[in-house]
Amino acid sequence: MSISRAIDLLNEKVANVVAYALLAAVAICTVNALVRYIFNASSNAWLEIQWYLFAAMFMLAASNTLKRDEHVRIDVIAGRFSKRTQVWIDLFGFVFFLMPISLVILYFGVPFAIGSIQSGEMSSNAGGLIVWPAKLLVPAGFALMVLQGVSEIIKRIAFLAGKIDGHEFAKHVATPEEEIAAIKAANKLQ
């Protein structure tokens, strides 16, 4: 469980840092739009940095989304089963789908990124940016996903062995009453 907690902490910290990419993307998008409409000027670099930031948000925070159990799934069906059966379904999915696919993408993504770095690949757009940082996000994101997959497998096995009660991976869905209480509490702070 200590390995699982360390992986979880790593992915939380990465996601917290990457959250600033959203702020940067919004600021860049706003400045780019203002410059384009006020001065009738723009640059492909401004547009490309926006999708680099979006790629960073998506690729580097996906593992934290897995940790928080917020990926899309068919809860309508799985929700009818016992907690133990749901854990077995998760474990099966992690071992036979998530890990193999993530490892294959990581296997092909590393040379993909290294080749781009070694060649100093540039965007084909006029005034575009270097490409390798965006390509490096693929193996980095899937490395984090593999680590989080290991963490989730550890947690599911610990649950099935009776070592934990499952709150480490249970998604908390707020009831309407809890959401109203949270809104009221936030309004009182203002």
From TrEMBL:
Primary subcellular site in the record, as a coarse category: membrane
Regions crossing the membrane: 20-39, 45-66, 87-109, 129-147
GO molecular function: transmembrane transporter activity
Lipid bilayer topology: Multi-pass membrane protein
Alphabetized InterPro entries for the sequence: DctQ (IPR055348), TRAP_DctQ (IPR007387)
Domain Tripartite ATP-independent periplasmic transporters DctQ component, first and last residues per copy: 26-157
GO annotations of cellular component type: plasma membrane
Entry's localization field: Cell inner membrane
Keywords noted in UniProt: Cell inner membrane, Cell membrane, Membrane, Transmembrane, Transmembrane helix, Transport
Entry-linked Pfam families: DctQ (PF04290)
Family according to the record: Belongs to the TRAP transporter small permease family.
Function: Part of the tripartite ATP-independent periplasmic (TRAP) transport system.
Assembly notes: The complex comprises the extracytoplasmic solute receptor protein and the two transmembrane proteins.
Protein name listed in UniProt: TRAP transporter small permease protein
Gene source species: Rugamonas brunnea
